[in-house]
Specification:
mainly beta, 3-stranded antiparallel beta sheet, single chain
Length: 135
């Protein structure tokens, strides 16, 4: 799906129920269940909703957390962040900058050079295999 339906419920027509739960109800897939957690294929990870490029396989890391993790977005402005104070903790939520879909969270325990770990739900991603890194 490329574009932005008028409201979140319109996405139900274009996504699986699990994708909708993660992207528009801010759900989280169970750890180690996501298709891209152990994926080693090269390419660019895109938003499953609008298709914007989000992360490169070149910045993917094995965090051991059970979710695909990256140390930086593919380019500045591809994701947006905001404070998430749900479930009795304070975290930084990561969303698609184009359509606003929930992707996951970012933590400050990642590797150099950024020190960040973008912990992203596989259900919010699609992989364009072999696509060039856009950084």
């Amino acid at each position: 799906m490329v574009g932005k339906p008028a409201d979140k419920d319109e996405w139900k027509k274009h996504l699986t129920p699990d994708q909708y739960e993660v992207c528009w109800k801010k759900g989280t897939e169970p750890p180690f269940s996501g298709y891209y957690n152990d994926c080693k294929d090269k390419g660019v990870y895109k938003c499953v909703c609008c298709g914007i490029s989000l992360f490169s396989s070149d910045t993917k890391l094995d965090s051991g957390t059970g979710w695909p993790s990256f140390w930086t977005p593919v380019k500045e402005g591809s994701v947006k962040e905001e404070v998430d104070a749900s479930y009795g903790m304070v975290r930084t939520e990561v969303m698609c900058a184009k359509c606003g879909a929930h992707l996951g969270h970012v933590f400050d325990d990642g590797p150099n050079p950024t020190g960040l770990r973008y912990c992203i739900n596989s259900l919010s991603l699609s992989l364009a295999k072999g696509a060039a890194d856009e950084r």
